[in-house]
Model the fold of this input.
Amino acid sequence: MVKVSVIVPIYQVESYLVKCLDSLVHQTLKEIEIILIDDGSMDLSSEIAQSYQKKDRRISYFRQENQGLSGARNTGLKKAKGEYVAFIDSDDYVEMDMLELMYQKAKEGNLDLVECDFYWEYVDKKRIDSASYLDDYFHQIRVVSWNKLYKRSIIEKEKLQFYVGLRYEDIGFTYQFLPFVDSYGQVNKPLYHYLQRNSSITRVQNERVKEIFAILRNVLSFYQEKGFDEKYKVELEYLFLHVILGRSSYRISQVKDKSVRKAILKEGWTLLNQEFPNWKKNHYLLEKKDKMHIYFRHLNYPLYLLSNVILKYFGDKIIKE
Done:
């Protein structure tokens, strides 16, 4: 029996792929399948992947025309046969006991979803991202897909997929999966190495940052279609306000074109206030007493614009603190 299907999208990662695949083929959990989806690589990634396939019968290799990360993951889901599914990015790597520890945790409680802590790994340092929110996972969960085990039967039954052609696909998939989770668990040990290409948190940003709004609209539409929107209204409202006012604001501030930046800010503010006009009364927002949530509670549109200007010039320092 295949206990875990490991889906690895591959695109132009020849410098990192060997380390990633070595960390998977040497997993202490042996009953796994490793599904390599070559998303049209033009470097040596294809040759590296196929060489590993020849050495390990648990590895299957598929090549397709470039569809992006979401398209590659969706292809992998169609091939998967395991009890659980893991998504591993091919420029990262994992601890040798990651899948064993997470699978054991999943089986102990017949869990639908398990996540582990992870390392933010920079060129010259690393830091641990840890969390503990077993009773409050729905609105606090780390939305990345690669530190989790998902019960495959849920994905298959509900026909869940990643949204193709959009950035921030992990938010979309995670929040599609969450309404079907009856049991959740954590392995409070860093098992995944999330590689950062340099020590700065600044990333080159452009107009595509606004694709997060399309992801949020898709999530809301999904809940409405499934009849979950009223049940999870408070959680969805918090997701919208936290992403738009918090997570995305720094990325937007790094867009160089001022007119584009202002247009994106306006679109996000409008989306939040149209869908959730009473967001300042959100239960989760009011119960949190940290500086960020106090800031959220006092935001209006002029202050939101001013804050983004501050983030443009001092965001790197503010976030590091």
Residues 207-320 form one domain. The two ends are 47 Å apart (CA to CA). The chain has two domains: 4-195, 207-320.
